[in-house]
UniProtKB/TrEMBL annotation:
This is beta-galactosidase. Keywords: Glycosidase, Hydrolase, Metal-binding, Zinc. Its EC number is 3.2.1.23. It catalyses: Hydrolysis of terminal non-reducing beta-D-galactose residues in beta-D-galactosides. It comes from Roseburia yibonii. Residues 10-376 form the Glycoside hydrolase family 42 N-terminal domain. Residues 424-596 form the Beta-galactosidase trimerisation domain. The keyword Secreted does not apply.
């Protein structure tokens, strides 16, 4: 692509009357240049078995060609027609809650041979019909694909085969998974029980890992089909989504997106987030960093909100701010779900760019301004290359482990809570970061590596963390890391396993805190806080105590330690505490790692990168309803959207929910 993509999902099938010409004209007025279509309309494309109707699809493609709009086609496999559900008793997924019922989307068993036969037919028929269309620039595989908890007979047979490939010796399998407990031992593969009834966390977690592999295999299968038809200059992507906490929140539990993305040309994602007074940019930053990490490159925003849910209607100026927030993280597109608000069904009040009356509104008019800016200045913002000195290591296996054995309490109870706790601290301090996963073998390109709650970890990953510090890296590792191996078998030695020398500490006991205060020592002298949710009673060996428990019984133990190891430094965090206390700790450690922090913090946020012309681009955001000022201390530049010079040392004031994009000139 040589320009930013700006557009929306469009559904001629959903319209109460014909207005495709009007919609295209309104999109062109907004300088939109792309629509996403087809991914949810199988029952329209194939109303009966083997009867195909591409009327709506052709209308949209004809209109796109007439108005010079790009098109991304989605394979329509994530929402099956009712006639298909009746073809076989095994098409709808059987889950731990029993057989699925037809009605909601994503209710099928993605391993079912009958489903796959019909899915292949619709994909091939669709691709054959559209393959010569000039307006199509890419293909989206399925839609927010997951495994949907499938645990039917066929899926469980595949799981046993998967286990057999890992364990030829049943005794070794039983030992590794601890199946002697409660007489769960499997003495013959033919006796393997229904996985839905297991009380064994290791086995349940392995089925989750296997289920994530089913998603990778399914998307790879679709990618191979599409590649048989697509042109060389057309891309394949997928709109990955994230763990949902009423908005996009963190690492997706049901998909190993790092593995699944390997079959694609460019990563795509759907990011939704709070707005109005709750807009912080943190979700855009964290989920965008995951998306950027999937292919170690730029990515597409295939869905984000325009008006969205009731509480998401943006304040004036926020739609533009949100869009540029995506671009500042490395996105090469902004696409809304969806163009128009629909008039029936579940998502009738998930509003698009246009409201139910289809008329111009403040959101649409702001999109017009945004589109004009993206058209004018997009060449300066496209393919932003980010070179970050900090990284966060995330793990699907650790996430699953903490689903099986969660933290106790209401706060910081999940893996993503632990990950966001640390990631959001870096964000508030204006430390940009990349996202790594355990398959990444080299951490040496980063001065600071943050590892949240790595509950399940292979020995090789722990060894690489040790080597990273020994060779001069700076590591922050948090509570419950190094606890179990990749099969959730708890390591039978001092915790954190494999990291006690590196971190210079150990512990063997932990508890839920009640009235446990924290007090700072050494570099954090004067810092206080309150331990929350989970505390580990850490004994320093060679480490220095940075935070200790201020408590009549736990006062002999450390909460946070710092240890010199080889040429590097390792910090271990043994509990949760307030954001302000965490920010003080992370700021201290980041400076030890040689990172230079801006003089300002959240709500002033700085994102930067290098554009294709080799010039530094700096985005400055004010995520607040109050004016915010700062000193511009970078080399002289041009404020792009205003085309005004900005001198080094000048004072800049950002309006509430305001931002500036400055291109360095030297």
């Amino acid at each position: 692509m040589d320009h930013l993509l700006f557009g929306a999902a469009y559904y001629d099938e959903y319209m109460p009357f014909d207005r495709i010409e009007t919609d295209m004209q309104m999109m062109k007025k907004a300088n939109m240049n792309v629509i996403r279509i087809a991914e949810s309309t199988w029952s329209t494309l194939e109303p009966q078995d083997g009867v195909f109707d591409f009327t709506h699809l052709d209308r949209m493609l004809d209109a796109a060609e007439k108005y010079d709009m790009h098109v991304i086609i989605g394979t329509p496999t994530y929402a099956i027609p009712s006639w298909l559900a009746k073809k076989s008793d095994t098409i709808l997924a059987v889950t731990k809650d029993g057989p699925s019922l037809y009605g909601h989307r994503q209710n099928m068993d993605i391993t079912d041979p009958t489903y796959l036969k019909y899915a292949e037919r619709i994909i091939r028929t669709l691709m054959e019909h559209i393959k010569d269309r000039s307006c199509i620039i890419g293909y989206q595989l399925d839609n927010e694909t997951k495994h949907y908890g499938t645990a039917g007979k066929h899926a469980q047979e595949l799981f046993v085969s998967y286990l057999k490939e890992q364990f030829s010796d049943l005794s070794a399998f039983n030992l590794e998974f601890g199946l002697d407990y409660w007489s769960n031992r499997v003495n013959d593969w033919s006796d393997f029980p229904d996985i839905r009834g297991t009380i064994n966390g290791s086995l349940a977690a392995e089925y989750e890992k296997f289920s994530r592999k089913l998603v990778t295999d399914f998307l790879t299968w679709q990618s191979d089909l599409v590649r048989e038809y697509k042109k060389e200059d057309q891309f394949i992507t997928q709109n990955f989504d994230f763990e949902w906490h009423d908005y996009s929140y963190g690492l997706q539990p049901d998909v190993n997106q790092f593995e699944a993305a390997k079959c694609m040309d460019i990563a795509g994602c759907d990011i939704y987030h709070p707005s109005q007074d709750d807009l912080t940019g943190a979700e855009i930053n964290f989920c965008g960093s995951i998306a950027r990490g999937l292919k170690k490159s730029n990515y597409l925003i295939l869905e984000t909100e325009a008006q969205g849910n009731l509480e998401w209607l943006p304040y004036p100026g926020q739609l533009r701010m949100q869009a540029y927030s995506h671009l500042s993280c490395g996105a090469d597109s902004v696409m809304y779900w969806h163009w128009h608000s629909i008039h029936n069904s579940l998502e009738s009040y998930w509003k698009g760019v246009l409201s139910h009356d289809f008329s111009e509104n403040p959101t649409y008019l702001e999109a017009c301004r945004l589109g004009a800016e993206m058209k004018t200045y997009g060449s300066h913002l496209l393919h932003l290359k980010k070179t970050n000195r900090a990284a966060i290591l995330v793990s699907n296996e650790a996430l699953t482990g903490l689903l099986m054995f969660p933290f106790k309490g209401r706060e910081n109870s999940s893996y993503n809570d632990a990950a966001r706790w640390l990631a959001d601290s870096l964000y508030r301090l204006n430390i940009e970061f990349d996202i790594l996963n355990p398959a990444d073998t080299d951490f040496s390109g980063y001065d600071l590596l943050v590892v949240p709650a790595l509950y399940a970890a292979e020995e090789s990953v722990l060894s690489r963390m040790n080597d990273y510090v020994r060779n001069g890296g700076h590591l922050i590792v948090s509570t419950r890391s190094g606890f179990s191996n990749e099969h959730l078998k708890i390591y039978p030695d001092m915790q954190p396993h494999g990291l006690t020398d590196c971190c210079g500490m150990h512990y063997s006991q932990f508890t839920a805190p009640k009235n446990v205060a924290l007090k700072g020592n050494g570099a954090l002298s004067g810092i206080t806080g309150t331990a929350r949710n989970w505390i580990e009673l850490v004994t320093p060996d060679t480490a220095e105590t940075l935070l200790s428990y201020d408590h009549p019984y736990w006062g002999a133990y450390s909460a946070v330690t710092c240890n010199h190891y080889g040429k590097g430094l390792a910090c271990y965090i043994g509990c949760f505490f307030e954001d302000g206390t965490l920010d003080a700790l992370v700021a201290f450690f980041a400076k030890e790692a040689g990172l230079s922090l801006p003089a300002f913090r959240f709500p002033l946020i700085l994102h930067e990168g290098t554009n294709e012309n080799g010039k530094k681009i700096r985005y400055f955001f004010n995520y607040s309803g109050r004016e915010a000022s700062f000193t511009y201390d970078a080399p002289d530049g041009i404020s792009l959207l205003e085309e005004k010079p900005v001198a080094q040392g000048s004072q800049i004031t950002l309006a509430p929910w305001g931002f500036k994009i400055i291109e360095q000139q030297a």
